[in-house]
């Protein structure tokens, strides 16, 4: 009775249907046809919505065709940084993905085919994109290029650092494959190739241990940057590389991480949003040079 009364009130108040017509329809019509006629549209709507969610969750990341993604990929977090690199460094850059705003551009750099694709923020996001790039699009190597916050005063705004290892308290790797360690290292061959590219480009790159964090804002009752740096030897912090390196290791691919210092916690210094998008050109140059055979 209550359900029918609610349905009656809904039809009258939202559909502008004459109450007498609705009352007659609901009183005179048999129960089973009445229930079917009123519930079927809702059931169909819910089924369509569920199907959409299933398809959306399956194709959650990339919509590019195979062959549109290069074997070598650079992954900034910010889609606008991906756009900047495509416009200022790549030749004949083509937008090959814009699903969920994760812009991906493929072009050439000094004759080498390269894709630059945004990873989004955090390990779950780069975890999805990098896994699909490696496993679905047959990508061989990914270099993450991003920003980092300095934990130590020796690092200055604008410094380019190369991750020699990533320490994390994240459960990403354990959840994904049962990996039970808290430190992951990049592919040694790609790591060495990046150092060679930096030297060839006359750009200073500082190898450091990086804190790859799941959390941007923390409460005072947990370890702060000073404690983390002292306990684990981390010189700076970012939020994606641990997941990227883990996926590469699991799938037997190559990955590494180049970062530009955008904030200094000891000095309380911060780069502007525009500087984060466009002024990290030394890091971009080294990463692109490392894509050359």
Keywords:
293 residues, alpha/beta, five-stranded mixed beta barrel, 44% helix, globular
Beta-strand residue percentage:
15-25%
Q: Please provide the count of β strands.
A: 11
Structural class: alpha/beta
Mean pLDDT: 88
Main sheet summary: 5 strands, mixed, barrel
Distance between the termini: 75 Å
Number of helices: 11
> Which shape, going by the Cα principal axes?
globular
Q: How much helical structure, as a percent, in the residues? A: 40-55%
Written as H for each helix and E for each strand, in order along the chain, the element string is HHHEHEEEHEEHEHEHEHEEHH
Report low-confidence residues grouped into runs of 5 or more: none
| Rg (C-alpha, Å) | 26 Å
Order of strands in the sheet with the most strands? 5-9-8-6-10
Write the layout of secondary structure elements.
Layout: H1 2-15, H2 19-28, H3 31-58, E1 72-75, H4 79-89, E2 91-97, E3 104-109, E4 112-117, H5 123-135, E5 141-150, E6 160-167, H6 172-177, E7 183-184, H7 188-200, E8 205-212, H8 225-232, E9 236-238, H9 241-250, E10 254-264, E11 269-270, H10 273-278, H11 281-289
Helix pairs in contact: 1-2, 5-9, 7-11
